[in-house]
Design goal:
The protein is built from 20 helices and two strands. By secondary structure, the protein is an all-alpha fold. The longest helix is centred in the C-terminal third of the chain and has 30 residues.
Length: 439
């Protein structure tokens, strides 16, 4: 059944400005509703793997500390190396997407992700595990922005944040798998066997993308982008960075995902183990609550721009609530079990406004710069996780040097540092313009 929200690819009209502002293009082809749903499901399966891999260290972190005698700074490096490599990869990934297409870019990178899982599973020291994390990151580096580039061709702009919300919600199953299920696997078959299974699943996901996904909707004309030289591709990056409001929105991307994954993907597990004395299954349960809350909430935040009639209000609302939750955690001390559970649930709800800020960022760019624009924002996202996780590790290491069980005060100060970084991002974001919602 055709549905109007699916429009096919976008093409620039002859002579249209390419230096900034979203280009308006005529509709090309309509798409069957179920075809669009299947497209989102298939592309989400790749990001599901990425979500699992980037978060998987959190629940097994205390085990890695004990097994490999890793310090707090070393643990932060082990986890954050994924995000640093992921961030660095965004620039070439954006160029590859705009030059060769998002589907081909995803397929090439899947093999690297599979290799990373295998190296990590076989690693016997910290350096080998870091190498595995870096390979995972390089492989997963296209699994978010490449689908976004495809959605920009398949869906009307006004539905973009809703589709992004669906993508994040479905791929959030990877976050869920990295909590209680990973804890169960680690306690039964071991975390190494668990990562070998993920390698197989990642390979299957890549094969599905190869078989089912196309860059453009059925019947839609191909985008008339000329093949750019390497120098022209780099010049496009400069055009992106000079787009009005790019840097204020970039600053919000630095903190938006980092405030969630710093706790869910790394420091939440040690915090629950050291402050509350929780074992592996219990840690997995609390992190599962946060993951479920985050996964469900992105579906709610997805259409928030259309509900409020703008991007700015929901972004500030989500960021403000997240900041309040972090301040609460930093000042509260040790909570009782019920309050702690409520905090984890509410935190996921507050911090899941990524679909709105992503739609606001996408609205800044014309079609031929969407890949590079979104990958630069993703660079900010992953670079922010590296910054936040490393900052927490440095604070904890400073306050508890040489210890393997960290005190409550160290966590409180480090959570306060995270709150301060988020507040700085909010101040920068206030200088961003709010593009008109597309029809």
């Amino acid at each position: 059944m055709p549905i109007k929200m699916f429009l096919g690819s976008r093409r620039l009209k002859d002579g249209q400005n390419t230096t900034g502002g979203a280009a308006k293009a005529p509709p090309a082809a309509q798409l069957d509703l179920w075809g669009g749903i299947w497209l989102v499901v298939v592309l989400s399966s790749a990001q599901l793997v990425s979500q699992f891999l980037r978060s998987a260290v959190g629940v097994i972190a205390p085990n890695l500390v004990t097994e490999l005698n890793i310090s707090a700074a070393g643990l932060a490096l082990l986890s954050s190396s994924f995000f640093l490599a992921f961030a660095i990869a965004q620039i070439p990934v954006g160029m590859l997407i705009d030059r060769f297409g998002p589907r081909r870019t995803m397929i090439w990178s899947t093999a690297i992700a599979v290799a990373g899982c295998i190296v990590f599973a076989l690693g016997r020291d910290q350096n080998t595990l870091i190498l595995g994390r870096v390979l995972m990151a390089l492989g997963c580096s296209s699994f978010y922005v490449a689908p976004l580039a495809i959605y920009a061709r398949w869906f009307k702009p006004k539905y973009f944040s809703t589709v992004v919300g669906a993508q994040l919600g479905l791929s959030g199953l990877g976050l869920l798998a990295a909590t209680a299920p990973l804890a169960l696997a680690a306690a039964t078959i071991g975390w190494r066997a668990g990562f070998m299974i993920v390698a197989v699943l990642a390979a299957l996901s890549g094969l599905i993308v190869l078989w089912w996904v196309r860059d453009d909707p059925p019947g839609a004309p191909k985008p008339e982008h000329k093949k750019e030289s390497f120098r022209e591709s780099l010049r496009g990056l400069l055009v992106v960075t000079r787009t009005p409001s790019f840097w204020p929105i970039f600053a919000m991307f630095v903190s938006n995902y980092a405030v969630v994954i710093t706790i869910l993907g790394l420091w939440g597990g040690p915090y629950l183990a050291h402050v509350y004395g929780y074992d592996l299954p219990t840690r997995g349960f609390y992190l599962l609550v946060l993951a479920i809350s985050s996964t469900i909430s992105v579906f709610v935040w997805g259409p928030a721009d259309r509900l409020f009639g703008n991007y700015r209000t929901p972004v500030l609302l989500g960021a403000g609530m997240t900041l309040a939750m972090l301040i609460w955690l930093a000042l509260a001390g040790k909570m009782n079990e019920g309050v702690l559970l409520v905090w984890f649930a509410l935190y996921g709800l507050a911090a899941s406004y990524a679909p709105v800020i992503t739609a606001q960022g996408r609205a800044l760019f014309p079609p031929q710069l969407v890949g590079r624009g979104l990958t630069l924002f993703n660079l900010a996202t992953m670079g922010g996780v590296f910054l936040f996780q490393t900052a927490m590790g440095a604070v904890i290491e400073y306050m508890a040097p040489g210890q393997t069980v960290y005190p409550l005060a160290a966590y409180q100060v480090s959570f306060g540092v995270v709150a301060g970084l988020l507040a700085l991002s909010i101040v920068c974001f206030l200088f961003a313009r709010d593009p008109k919602l597309h029809s």
